[in-house]
Structures are given as C-alpha cells and as structure tokens.
Design brief:
Length: 285
C-alpha cells in the first residue's frame, strides 16, 4: 500500500491509510489486480474511496472509506482493476475537499454500512463498454502523463462516478445518509468557528450531543473523525491563503485558528508531505 497510500496511524489496532497529497502524485491511481495482488492482505481502513472493477463480468466493488475493510471480500481475480482517488480532487479550488463528503453526490455510494466494507454492484450490460473504455482511458492518461493528464484523468473518473451513482440509485436506505442534518450542523460549526480554537467537545456541545456519540456518527457517515474534519478545514483555508495572498506563514496559521506557527507547520507537513513555505513555492512556480 505504500506506493498508493500514506500510512496514517492505527484505529483500534487497525492500520489506517490516507491518499498521499504532494505535487508529484496524480489525484487518481489505477492498479491491475490478480490472485494475491492486493496491496494489503489484512483488514485495514483507508480514508479515500476505492473501486474494484471487473467490467467484463459486469461487477464493481464499492469499497467504503473510513471503515474496516476485509480484503477477502473484494474481487481481486485476474482482470480486476482497482481505482484509488483523492476525494479532494472532486472539489473546486484550493479549499477542496471542503465540504466534499457533505455535498458531493458522487461520493454517496462510498458511505455504505456493509459489515466487511465492500458493496458489490452489477454494471448493466449496456454500460460495460463505458466502464472498460473509462478505465483504459485512465490508464493511458496516468501512464503517458501528457500535458493536462490530471484534468483528463479526473474527467474520466467523473464519468465513471456519475454512472456509479446511477447504478446505486435504487439501493435500499442503508446507502442514504440518514444523519445528514447532524452532519450539516457539524460542518456549519466548524465553518463558523474556523479562526478560533475548536475541539470535539465544543462541536458536540453546539450539536447537543455527547462527544462519544458525535464521534461515532461522523466517523460512520464520513470515514473521518470530527477532529480530522477540523484539521481538514483549516488546511483547506490555509491552502487558499497560501496561494491567494502574500500573508506570512505565521499570519496564515493565525487566520486558521492555530496561533502556534510551529504546530501549524507540523500539521500542514503531516497532511501535505511538505512545509507550507515549500508547498507555496512549488504551487506558484
């Protein structure tokens, strides 16, 4: 998994992986699978969406983000292809992916509650050529890496996700985010209090819930904790300020609610793989 994702720690003893965010990594990755070819063979969690496709057989596995996944449940037979992608890539501008999980309809299928983390869907015969062509086009763009390949790869991915949303449209209610009003409130609190210190307990108090209950609810529906979303929003705003202003790193830190510049730099490096100063230089070069 190291080549496809970044080890982000453990949750209740289970390894957690995040999609790497650096200037050299495309927002989409494609991996051809086969017997024994899964990157990880034990139960794990990843904080990004994954599709495992067999268009020829008309099958696609929707692998949930944020929940333990049993690799044995995924279809890794010869001819299977895994598509990994950063949900941030579906957003618009440097503040992406905020608030991707709340408003982006193309990500709803990845919030299912299957016990093994894998939901298997059937691709209608009339749509299988679209899937084959889309995956082939993704491979070509990511292999040749011609000018504009990232945008082209995202365009092909978006077509596949639109079709996935249509396929899953008639699924039972376990695919619907029944707790959307609470999620909306969580994101609204984080947005409103972006420039000040903010903890899980602060958010829970404003939502009228216990911290434990809110943590479980948000993690189950989005794959991330409230704390992770607070950091994500701060990093999204920091990216926008680094690109769109000449503010010092210290002032950027203060504007995103992190008065300690050193702590801000460590958080930014953990998320982006480099310091805010270097990130700004690479992006504006």
């Amino acid at each position: 998994m190291a080549e496809l994702a970044r080890f982000a720690g453990r949750r209740q003893g289970i390894a957690v992986y995040a999609y790497p965010r650096d200037h050299s990594r495309a927002p989409v990755s494609v991996l051809t699978l086969g017997p024994g070819a899964l990157p990880v063979h034990t139960t794990h969690i990843h904080e990004f969406p994954v599709l495992i496709c067999r268009p020829g057989a008309g099958l696609v596995d929707v692998v949930a983000a944020g929940t333990p996944v049993d690799p044995a449940a995924a279809d890794a037979r010869a001819g299977s292809v895994a598509v990994f992608f950063d949900p941030a890539a579906l957003g618009d501008g440097p503040r992406s992916p905020w608030p991707t999980w709340r408003v982006h309809p193309l990500l709803a299928p990845f919030l299912h509650d299957r016990y093994d983390g894998v939901l298997r869907l059937r691709i209608p015969p009339t749509r299988r050529r679209l899937w084959r062509n889309g995956i082939d086009a993704l491979r070509t763009e990511l292999t040749e890496r011609r000018d504009g390949y990232e945008q082209a790869a995202l365009a092909h991915l978006t077509v596949l996700l639109i079709d996935l949303a249509r396929i899953s449209d008639d699924l039972p209610g376990d695919l619907r985010r029944s707790n959307e009003p609470v999620l909306a409130q969580v994101f609204d609190v984080i947005e409103r209090r972006l420039g000040e210190p903010l903890s899980l307990r602060d958010v829970a108090d404003e939502c009228g819930l216990t911290a434990g209950h809110l943590t479980t609810l948000v993690r189950r529906r989005t794959g991330r904790t409230v704390g992770a979303w607070i950091v994500e929003r701060r990093m999204a705003e920091a990216r926008a300020l680094l690109l769109g202003t000449d503010l010092s790193i210290g002032e950027v830190a203060r504007r995103v609610g992190m008065a300690d510049q050193g702590y801000f730099t460590r958080q930014f490096r953990r998320v982006h793989g480099t310091s805010p100063r270097v990130w700004r230089r690479l992006r504006t070069a």
